[in-house]
Design goal:
The complex is a heterodimer of chains A (about 325) and B (about 230). With about 325 residues, chain A is mostly helical. In chain A, about 60% of the residues lie in helices and about 5% in strands. Chain A is built from 15 helices and four strands. Chain A is globular, with a radius of gyration of 19 Å. Chain B has helices at about 5-10, 35-45, 60-65, 90-100, 140-150, 160-165, 170-180, 205-215; strands at about 20-25, 50, 75-80, 105-110, 125-130, 155-160, 185-190, 190-195, 200, 220-225. Classes of the chains: A mainly alpha (about 325), B alpha/beta (about 230). At the A-B interface, α12 and α14 of A face α7 of B.
Chain lengths: ~325, ~230
């Protein structure tokens, strides 16, 4: 993916101009992402690669929102079937990407594209497989082998846009998987809370903000597919997926004549991202539990940002000219 | 948003807006009875409420009511701070308001009643400043509000649409207010005004007149400062 999110005239910058609301933290994070990607691509490019293997960066890298506390979440992607001997291996990549993997171990093994694409639905589509597929689709960026990343993304989009898709209709198969993943994240949040209160605050804050951006950044392009005949949908979707989720969302606010609301919604997210770059704020969020959340100014700030973001997105979906009709027809059932 | 005259008479942007709530400021008969005011506001909308302590003597009972932990259905809760009957020294008043800042989304103040901005900075993003009507001598226009926001950079903006109408019936001044302060917009006050500039239910004529500005504010709660008009 060629995304750096900093191209002049990005949708986010256009929204800033239209709404009178700057997004300094998001744009600074895009700069940090671009600089970090250049360094990582140069270093990872020195590792020997098998022809069908790529390294993909995930999470804040894919959203172009890298801050001081961002992890180097990465996936070693194998185009085709799973096998044992993959190079570069996870261990080889970790000699360069050493900022930690998060706590789920989801990226601890190479990922075969046949698993991501061939196991959608039914028992074989585990929680991990669903998560990897959606994170790959919605917030990933190539670290090595751009061509492989593009090819697997296109194969995955083709799988979703199968023969069931009709001209000028929302592709329900993809819509359902995007919605399913958002709901899975919400349910898993509750599941993790039952395992223990650790990191409740930061998880909750991210569910209200970054995860919501991830979901909306998938949902909105899928709804917009209804403007295209079926054979034009893949190109539209691939174009959208090359942009950071905040650009996809900004574009939707602009398209639907809701730039003021968009400025406030993404402005709230920009505020949150800026605060997350502050070590004390982040540490306070990481130590907050449900019991202590009402006394935490950092958590209250994060919750307020999440609500402002959500209100803007709900206004976009339910109080603009055409999206409410699609939302009613497709989002609930 | 372009709406033809004939369709405008049928379409109600107010009725199509979900995040709506009532101000208890118009519930004169229930003054002092917070649970009864909450019940009446809930009949208007379970989404939002603005608990109004316009007279300073109401503030203690409001603080006590909220400190008692009432079960409230609302997703957006703001309070309107005192603008009448002021006797407390400003630092003491702000400290009292500060006791509520963790419990509410916004504390609305009239800028023309603020003598010293310094204590108010402690309210941070919870503080919300409202544009004033034509009777006031400050806080009415962009030029008059800008210095207040310069002094209180974290404060939000409560756009009182009827107050903007009172200073310019073309709503051009209202559009200027939105253009200048839209990034900090938190909620709206919505009503019509009597010739004496008292809040009245929003008329159909005013709803149509205000519609272009209301359409720019579809993401924030609209607080009704008078009972909703009958359909």
């Amino acid at each position: 993916m060629s995304q750096s999110g900093k191209a002049a005239g990005s949708s986010l910058e256009q929204l800033a101009a239209a709404s009178g609301r700057d997004f300094p933290n998001l744009l600074r994070a895009r700069d940090a992402t671009r600089e970090g990607l250049e360094a990582r691509r140069a270093a990872l490019g020195q590792l020997p690669h098998q022809d069908d293997v790529a390294v993909v960066l995930m999470g804040s890298w894919g959203r172009a929102e890298v801050t001081a506390g961002s992890d180097d979440d990465f996936m070693v992607l194998v185009r085709g079937t799973d096998r044992d001997d993959v190079h570069p291996s996870i261990a080889e990549v970790e000699t360069i990407l050493d900022q930690g993997h998060g706590d789920q171990g989801m990226f601890g093994e190479p990922v075969a594209s046949d698993e991501l694409i061939g196991r959608i639905g039914l028992d074989g589509d585990t929680n991990t497989n669903l998560s990897l597929r959606m994170l790959f689709l919605l917030e990933s960026v190539y670290a090595t082998r751009e061509d492989l990343h593009e090819a697997v993304t296109a194969e995955l989009v083709d799988r979703y846009l199968d023969e069931s898709v009709k001209d000028l209709r929302v592709p329900r198969f993809l819509l359902n998987d995007v919605v399913r993943y958002w709901r899975t994240m919400c349910v898993d949040f509750a599941g993790k809370e039952r395992q223990g209160p650790e990191k409740w605050g930061i998880r909750n804050a991210k569910l209200r903000t970054a995860r919501k951006v991830l979901f909306a950044g998938g949902l909105l392009p899928v709804l917009e597919c209804s403007h295209f005949p079926r054979d034009e949908m893949p190109a539209f979707l691939l174009g959208q997926l090359r942009m950071p989720p905040t650009d996809r969302i900004a574009q939707a606010f602009l398209t639907h004549d809701a730039s003021d609301a968009g400025g406030r919604a993404l402005g709230a997210y920009d505020d949150f991202l800026g605060r997350l770059d502050d070590k004390d704020f982040r540490e306070e969020l990481e130590s907050v539990t449900r019991d202590t959340s009402k006394e935490s100014p950092a958590f209250r700030d994060a919750a307020r940002s999440g609500k402002d973001l959500e209100r803007g997105l709900l206004a976009l979906l339910f109080e603009t000219e055409s999206l409410p009709k699609l939302a009613r027809d497709y989002i609930v059932f | 948003m372009a709406v033809s005259a004939s369709s405008a008479s049928r379409f109600s942007i107010l009725r199509s807006h979900h995040p709506v709530g009532a101000s208890t400021g118009y519930m004169y008969d229930l003054r002092g009875d917070w649970p009864a005011q909450v019940d009446q506001a809930w009949q208007v909308s379970p989404f939002a409420i603005e608990l109004s302590a316009l007279a300073e003597e109401e503030l203690d009972s409001l603080v006590g009511y909220l400190a008692s932990g009432p079960r409230l259905p609302f997703r957006y809760l703001s309070i309107h701070g005192p603008s009448k009957g002021r006797s407390l020294p400003e630092p003491a008043l702000v400290a009292r308001l500060g006791e509520l800042s963790a419990l509410v989304a916004g504390i609305v103040m009239h800028p023309d009643t603020i003598e010293d901005t310094a204590p108010y900075r402690a309210l941070g993003r919870t503080l919300v400043l409202e544009n004033m009507d034509a009777r006031k001598e400050d806080g009415r226009t962009v030029d008059e509000l800008a210095p207040w926001f310069a002094e209180l950079p974290e404060a939000g903006f409560c756009f009182d649409v009827a107050h903007a109408w009172s200073i310019d019936e073309t709503m051009s001044a209202g559009a200027d207010l939105l253009d200048s302060f839209r990034p900090r917009l938190r909620h709206l006050h919505v009503s019509s005004l009597s010739p004496e500039l008292h809040h009245l239910p929003l008329t159909e004529e005013h709803e149509n007149l205000f519609m272009p500005l209301l359409a720019r504010c579809r993401d924030v709660p609209w607080i009704l400062e008078a009972p909703p008009r009958n359909p």
